[in-house]
């Protein structure tokens, strides 16, 4: 493309990423050409920052498909978005230092995330094993095995995120086989199930289950 057209494509993509990240409190930290760096959990910490990042990543993949159709029609070029999500400790460099207008994350985290992006197939979102432990159950994923990333001695477990499961709480995200089964509570479970049937029946009334044991 003409340099001015290419710059317009980059700016459109940057805006797309910022817009997708905004509902999840994601911050557009840095752009360089086609590269975009987003922060989640900074400057404000969130317990579910990992899930927010993955949700935003899926939205970017979906939105980029619309952009791809536009670019194909307008310029006759195709784009393939590749995303990576990782978590870890960093030191934040204040804005304005080292020629960055936004705080810059210093540490292995940004580098590892870039390597995940490099290992991702086009039109996919790849997360590290550390992220997968935090979001498993909230999303469906495909294990990619150990990824040997450039410049890293130790391989990193990678997972391709396929889609959200719709789970909103930790209980919903927990697979049934991971729940601890009741043992020796057959009578109590039968009573609870009967009360549930009574409450749901036509003309049913609120029910209460209690267990009084003699000491």
Task: Quickly list its features.
215 residues, alpha+beta, four-stranded mixed β-sheet, two-stranded antiparallel ribbon, 6 helices, 20% strand
Describe the protein.
By secondary structure, the protein is of the alpha+beta class. Helix content is 39%, strand content 20%. The protein contains 6 helices and 8 strands, in the order αββαβββαβαββαα. It has helices at residues 3-21, 49-74, 108-119, 129-135, 170-173, 186-200; strands spanning 27-32, 35-39, 82-85, 91-93, 104-106, 124-128, 139-147, 156-164. It has a 4-stranded mixed beta sheet with strand order 3-6-8-7, sandwiched between helices. A two-stranded antiparallel sheet has the order 1-2. Helix 1 (3-21) runs antiparallel to helix 2 (49-74). The radius of gyration is 23 Å and the shape is elongated.
């Amino acid at each position: 493309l003409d340099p001015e057209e290419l710059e317009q494509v980059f700016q459109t993509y940057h805006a797309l990423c910022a817009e997708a990240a905004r509902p999840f409190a994601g911050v557009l930290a840095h752009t360089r050409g086609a590269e975009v760096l987003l922060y989640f959990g900074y400057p404000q910490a969130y317990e579910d920052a990992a899930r927010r990042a993955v949700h935003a990543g899926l939205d970017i993949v979906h939105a980029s498909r619309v952009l791809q159709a536009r670019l194909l029609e307008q310029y006759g070029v195709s784009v393939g978005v590749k995303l990576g999500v990782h978590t870890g400790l960093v030191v934040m460099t204040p804005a304005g230092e080292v020629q960055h207008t936004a705080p810059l994350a210093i540490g292995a985290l940004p580098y590892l995330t870039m390597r995940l992006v490099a290992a991702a197939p086009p039109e996919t979102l790849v997360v590290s094993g550390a992220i997968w432990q935090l979001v498993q159950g909230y999303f469906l994923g495909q294990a990619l095995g150990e990824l040997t990333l450039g410049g890293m001695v130790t391989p990193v477990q990678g997972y391709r995120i396929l889609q959200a499961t719709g789970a909103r709480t930790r209980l919903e995200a927990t697979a049934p086989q991971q729940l601890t089964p009741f043992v020796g509570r057959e009578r109590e479970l039968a009573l609870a199930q009967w009360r549930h049937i009574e409450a749901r029946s036509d003309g049913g009334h609120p029910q209460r289950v209690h267990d009084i044991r003699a000491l």
